[in-house]
């Protein structure tokens, strides 16, 4: 029974709870068992079973009283980048040792308002920096998927690797992630799950440990497009505590899912056919294009001439902001402190020990590109490129309603396979444009690679047209009929 | 008036520019709702935003923006309808975020001006370069423990206006006048209380010297000087130090210095070589600050009358001297007090009473206009008694002292003490006749040309009448009788 319940996503679990087929406590208990059996995946940094059961009991009471919220009794995993009141929050970094916030992020507060249950905090790349989830102080997350006939551990993608793995391995009904350069979409692609990064400003950043403030957004990671629509509806909304949050009403995203793309134009950016794009990825892209056409869309070739500069621009802007955002981790007020003979040495010791290699690398890059004498050569030019990239999309959206592209240039790979940071950064080549332009973008599983690994397709939309993006994703999901699940080898 | 100072090689000119940090009068901090009261227990006025906790975001306090705009308008400055908040990155134990949110390239207020009221009654215009908003840092206390530093974040995030002047000031005295006038304007506007002893206003003083007519010399910046007296002392010391170095064949290196108020000297803090690279960039947590032109106009229309305008009006409406008007408007309350006394009365008499006996009394008692024992109405009544010849100016001084002591109305004091002026010419004549009769020898001397003795006779008559005789009547009658 328990293993069956964990297969449920938001929509089915909600229906089952409403029909009293099972209780929220039973549902939660099933997930707690699944999490215990899956510790080998290292998806959770912190498990909160007692809290989850308490919340579930309250949900059952509300369901009985007829006052259930839209997410009532649904057990959810939360990326450890979201501050959760009274629950350890680490951003997967040693430097946040023992940090238990006295406040709740707005996004998670919205989830609890709507009745969701917290199963625990999900593993990730430290401070959301990484594309493979190998940068966590708490150790790498293992992708539930394996290559056909091969037991080698694969990465789940990053930085929301724990969220992706937890959703794929049925360790929660859904999870939250954050996406700064592809951190929701790329792991979704690697794990056969659905993830959407909403428009910048759609979800509050309040209470999310900041990495690159002008690029990052929270978003749902789910088992289906419908689930993504439901969860995003709860996460989104204006927040006066975040000056960059936008005062717009949140549409009923689930209601927008028709799968009918008649009258819609889908753009195929020619610049995304990069040199060395694997023929397999190209083939799935072709198939996705055909599915969109079959759903009634008109396919239009478009040009995003500055897309080729997105990756370098991103790897200047993001580290620049990170170098400043991470300056507060100094050992003075919270988290790790490593003593030194004076203040400067205490800073140096704390930051040297507290931050992992990738975080230190990006802080140094960011400090360098902002420093006197290099500012104009790097930061100013990157900001100009950013405007040009956004302009490309604005022009494209005069013609098309959405853009279709691959999510990632490869399927999941083995840990340690991309030791060169540049090779790792190239994994973001298709995703960073949406962050630089602030656009909504999602990844939907398309099918399995020749090695039996999931591959995703990416849909990018106009600002605040999450509904349109989700509907294209829904059409693709229906056409793809993707129903593969990883073999549950981790249960031993 | 020459500001030049003499060195061994001739005259030198001091060039001064000031950067004043003025704490915005507001109940909440610039980017958080935490309180800003002075003197609270350490770390009791700190929100998780001020303390730089993970995930916390700044939200601009609209009232602080309004205060900055009002200050800009008061300084006759250009209000920039779009301004940008930047991050100034550096590490310090009392800077919780590892950066300060400030304005760099695009400040909220652009060029303006401030008029100095010079001692000779003239005015001198000093250029304002800009005003920008920024957060204050916390406070590190190094004297609480032998090897620990304590940090108090109560001030962290408090809104400051940094008001930067052009290098237009030419003497320590002008620097002091500038600060005094700036404080007056801020207090009129109600945008900063100007309490330097509480740290609400502090100045970074840029000083250089040059031979008159030469280009600017290399400047040194003296950080965080916290009283007008110290600014004056710091400028004087620093200018002399620089002149001595140059005249000894040395060169001035650009550096940041501290003023040691105990020894009255400036000391090197850090050289330009290890000056910080602050890595400014636009704060991605805050959108550009965009102001509505109509809103700014509304603030402009609602500004109080400022000291320069008030001074001009007092001179025009009341006919008092510009210098007196300047003294009266230096604070709002004395100017209001003057107007309350002078309205409908002899305004010059009112001015001379306020600036003379009344201010002397406040000084003596250590009181201010607001807690003065003599109200505007009471002083006005006293002046009325002088004007209608009930008492003389001399008797009025006696009445005034009694008013200060007893708090009674002047008319009551006059009646009680029988100080009413004698204007009855018969009584005055009698008194004069007696004085002349007693001093026949002096009358003869006077008549033989010793005019100076007139004062002696007046004094005797006043003495005889216990000062109550109307002085004009005494003069007239005495003159006639002496001429015989």
Automatic annotation (TrEMBL), chain A:
Q: Which GO terms describe its biological process?
A: translation
Enzymatic reactions:
L-glutamyl-tRNA(Gln) + L-glutamine + ATP + H2O = L-glutaminyl-tRNA(Gln) + L-glutamate + ADP + phosphate + H(+)
For molecular function, the Gene Ontology terms on record are:
ATP binding; glutaminyl-tRNA synthase (glutamine-hydrolyzing) activity; transferase activity
Q: Which residues are the active-site ones?
A: 79, 159, 183
**A cellular component annotation (GO) from this entry:** glutamyl-tRNA(Gln) amidotransferase complex
Against InterPro entries, the record matches this protein to: Amidase, Amidase_CS, Amidase_dom, AS_sf, GatA
Look up the EC number in the record and give it.
Answer: 6.3.5.7
Q: What does this protein do?
A: Allows the formation of correctly charged Gln-tRNA(Gln) through the transamidation of misacylated Glu-tRNA(Gln) in organisms which lack glutaminyl-tRNA synthetase. The reaction takes place in the presence of glutamine and ATP through an activated gamma-phospho-Glu-tRNA(Gln).
Q: Which UniProt keywords apply?
A: ATP-binding, Ligase, Nucleotide-binding, Protein biosynthesis, Transferase
The entry's protein name is Glutamyl-tRNA(Gln) amidotransferase subunit A
**Domain Amidase stretches:** 26-470
Protein family according to the UniProt entry: Belongs to the amidase family. GatA subfamily.
Give the multimer and partner information: Heterotrimer of A, B and C subunits.
The record's section on PANTHER family has: GLUTAMYL-TRNA(GLN) AMIDOTRANSFERASE SUBUNIT A, TRANSAMIDASE
SUPFAM superfamilies from the entry?
A: Amidase signature (AS) enzymes
NCBIfam families tied to this protein = gatA (TIGR00132)
Query: From what organism does this protein derive?
Result: Zavarzinia compransoris
TrEMBL record, chain B:
UniProt keyword terms in alphabetical order: ATP-binding, Ligase, Nucleotide-binding, Protein biosynthesis, Transferase
Which Enzyme Commission numbers does its entry carry?
A: 6.3.5.-
Biological process per Gene Ontology, one example term = glutaminyl-tRNAGln biosynthesis via transamidation
Q: Which GO terms describe its molecular function?
A: asparaginyl-tRNA synthase (glutamine-hydrolyzing) activity; ATP binding; glutaminyl-tRNA synthase (glutamine-hydrolyzing) activity; transferase activity
Q: Which InterPro entries does the UniProt entry name for this protein? A: Asn/Gln-tRNA_amidoTrfase_suB/E (IPR017959), Asn/Gln-tRNA_Trfase_suB/E_cat (IPR006075), Asn/Gln_amidotransferase (IPR018027), Asn/Gln_tRNA_amidoTrase-B-like (IPR003789), GatB (IPR004413), GatB_C_1 (IPR042114), GatB_Yqey_C_2 (IPR023168), Gln-tRNA_amidoTrfase_suB_CS (IPR017958)
Enzyme class of the recorded protein, top EC level: ligase
> Has the keyword Transferase been applied to this entry?
yes
Q: Which reaction does it catalyse?
A: L-aspartyl-tRNA(Asn) + L-glutamine + ATP + H2O = L-asparaginyl-tRNA(Asn) + L-glutamate + ADP + phosphate + 2 H(+); L-glutamyl-tRNA(Gln) + L-glutamine + ATP + H2O = L-glutaminyl-tRNA(Gln) + L-glutamate + ADP + phosphate + H(+)
Domain (Asn/Gln amidotransferase) ranges: 336-482
Q: Which family does it belong to?
A: Belongs to the GatB/GatE family. GatB subfamily.
What does this chain do?
A: Allows the formation of correctly charged Asn-tRNA(Asn) or Gln-tRNA(Gln) through the transamidation of misacylated Asp-tRNA(Asn) or Glu-tRNA(Gln) in organisms which lack either or both of asparaginyl-tRNA or glutaminyl-tRNA synthetases. The reaction takes place in the presence of glutamine and ATP through an activated phospho-Asp-tRNA(Asn) or phospho-Glu-tRNA(Gln).
Database matches in PANTHER family: GLUTAMYL-TRNA GLN AMIDOTRANSFERASE SUBUNIT B MITOCHONDRIAL AND PROKARYOTIC PET112-RELATED (PTHR11659), GLUTAMYL-TRNA(GLN) AMIDOTRANSFERASE SUBUNIT B, MITOCHONDRIAL (PTHR11659:SF0)
This protein is called Aspartyl/glutamyl-tRNA(Asn/Gln) amidotransferase subunit B
Q: Whose protein is this, by species?
A: Zavarzinia compransoris
């Amino acid at each position: 029974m328990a293993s069956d319940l964990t297969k449920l996503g938001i929509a089915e679990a909600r229906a089952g709870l409403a029909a009293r087929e099972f209780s929220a406590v039973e549902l939660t208990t099933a997930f707690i068992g699944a999490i215990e059996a899956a510790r080998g995946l290292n998806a959770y940094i912190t498990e909160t079973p007692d809290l989850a059961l308490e919340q579930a009991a309250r949900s059952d009471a509300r369901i009985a009283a007829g006052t259930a919220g839209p997410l009532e009794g649904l057990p959810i995993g939360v990326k450890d980048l979201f501050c959760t009141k009274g629950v350890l929050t680490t951003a997967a970094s040693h430097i946040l040792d023992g940090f238990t916030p006295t406040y709740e992020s707005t996004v998670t507060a919205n989830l609890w308002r709507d009745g969701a249950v917290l199963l625990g905090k999900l593993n990730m790349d430290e401070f959301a920096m990484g594309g493979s989830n190998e940068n966590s102080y708490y150790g790498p997350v293992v992708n539930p998927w394996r290559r056909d006939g091969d037991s080698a551990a694969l990465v789940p993608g990053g930085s929301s690797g724990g969220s992706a793995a937890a959703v794929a391995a049925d360790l929660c009904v859904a999870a939250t992630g954050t996406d700064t350069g592809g951190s929701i979409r790329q792991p979704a692609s690697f794990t056969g799950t659905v993830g959407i990064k909403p428009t910048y400003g759609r979800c509050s950043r309040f209470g999310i440990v900041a990495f690159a403030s002008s690029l990052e957004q929270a978003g749902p990671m789910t088992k289906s497009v419908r689930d993504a629509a439901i969860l995003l509806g709860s996460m989104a909304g204006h927040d006066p505590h975040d000056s960059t949050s936008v005062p717009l009403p949140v549409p009923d995203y689930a209601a927008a899912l028709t799968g009918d793309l008649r009258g819609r134009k889908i753009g195929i950016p020619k610049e995304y056919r990069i040199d060395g794009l694997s023929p397999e990825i190209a083939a799935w892209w072709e198939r996705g294009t055909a599915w969109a056409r079959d759903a009634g869309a008109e396919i239009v070739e478009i040009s995003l001439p500055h897309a080729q500069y997105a990756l370098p621009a991103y790897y200047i802007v993001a580290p620049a902001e990170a170098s400043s955002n991470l300056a507060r981790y100094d050992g003075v007020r919270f988290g790790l402190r490593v003593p030194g003979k004076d203040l400067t040495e205490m800073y140096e010791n704390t930051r040297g020990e507290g931050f992992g290699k990738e975080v230190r690398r990006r802080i140094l890059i960011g400090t360098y590109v902002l420093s006197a004498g290099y500012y104009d050569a790097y930061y100013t030019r990157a900001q100009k490129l950013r405007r040009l990239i956004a302009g490309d999309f604005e022009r494209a959206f005069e013609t098309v309603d959405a853009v279709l592209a691959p999510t990632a240039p490869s399927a999941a790979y083995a840990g340690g396979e991309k030791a060169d940071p540049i090779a790792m950064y190239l994994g973001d080549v298709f995703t960073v444009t949406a962050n630089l332009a602030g656009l909504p973008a999602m990844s939907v599983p398309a099918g399995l690679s020749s090695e039996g690994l999931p591959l995703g397709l990416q849909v990018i939309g106009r600002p605040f047209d999450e509904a349109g993006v989700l509907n294209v994703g829904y059409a693709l999901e229906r056409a793809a009929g993707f129903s593969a699940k990883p073999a549950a080898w981790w249960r031993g | 008036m020459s500001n030049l100072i003499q060195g061994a090689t001739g005259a030198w000119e001091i060039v001064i520019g000031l950067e004043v940090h003025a704490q915005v009068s507001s109940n909440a901090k610039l980017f958080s709702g935490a309180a800003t009261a002075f003197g609270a227990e350490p770390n009791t006025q700190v929100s998780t935003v001020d303390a730089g906790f993970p995930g916390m975001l700044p939200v601009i306090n609209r009232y602080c923006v309004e205060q900055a705009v009002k200050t800009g308008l008061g300084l006759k400055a250009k209000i920039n309808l779009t301004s940008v908040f930047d991050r100034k990155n550096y590490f310090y134990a009392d800077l919780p975020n590892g950066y300060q949110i400030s304005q760099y390239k695009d400040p909220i207020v652009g060029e303006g001006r401030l008029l100095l009221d010079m001692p000779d009654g003239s005015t001198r215009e000093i250029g304002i370069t800009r005003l920008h908003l920024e957060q204050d840092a916390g406070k590190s206390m190094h004297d609480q423990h032998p090897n620990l530093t304590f940090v108090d974040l109560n001030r962290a995030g408090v809104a400051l206006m940094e008001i930067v002047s052009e290098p237009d000031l030419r003497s320590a005295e002008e620097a002091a006048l500038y600060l005094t006038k700036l404080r007056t304007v801020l207090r009129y506007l109600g945008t900063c209380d100007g309490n330097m002893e509480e740290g609400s206003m502090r100045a970074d003083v840029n000083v250089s010297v040059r031979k008159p007519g030469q280009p600017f010399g290399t400047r040194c910046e003296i950080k965080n000087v916290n009283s007008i007296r110290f600014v004056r002392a710091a400028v004087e010391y620093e200018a002399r130090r620089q002149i001595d170095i140059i005249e000894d064949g040395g060169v001035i290196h650009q550096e940041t210095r501290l003023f040691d108020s105990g020894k009255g000297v400036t000391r090197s803090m850090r050289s330009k070589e290890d000056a910080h690279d602050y890595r400014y960039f636009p704060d991605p947590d805050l959108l550009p600050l965009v102001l509505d032109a109509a809103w700014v106009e509304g603030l402009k229309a609602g500004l109080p009358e400022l000291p320069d305008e008030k001074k001009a009006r007092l001179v025009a409406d009341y006919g008092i001297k510009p210098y007196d008007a300047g003294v009266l408007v230096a604070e709002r309350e004395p100017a209001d007090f003057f107007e309350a006394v002078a309205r409908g009365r002899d305004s010059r008499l009112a001015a001379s009473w306020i600036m003379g006996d009344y201010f002397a009394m406040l000084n003596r008692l250590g009181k201010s206009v607001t807690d003065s024992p003599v109200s505007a109405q009471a002083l006005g009544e006293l002046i009325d008694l002088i004007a209608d010849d009930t008492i003389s100016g001399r008797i009025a001084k006696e009445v005034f002292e009694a008013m200060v002591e007893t708090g009674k109305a002047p008319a009551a004091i006059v009646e009680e003490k029988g100080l009413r002026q004698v204007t009855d010419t018969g009584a005055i004549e009698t008194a004069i006749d007696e004085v002349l009769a007693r001093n026949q020898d002096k009358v003869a001397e006077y008549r033989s040309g010793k005019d100076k003795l007139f004062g002696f006779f007046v004094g005797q008559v006043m003495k005889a009448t216990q000062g109550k005789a109307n002085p004009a009547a005494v003069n007239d009658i005495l003159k006639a009788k002496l001429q015989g």
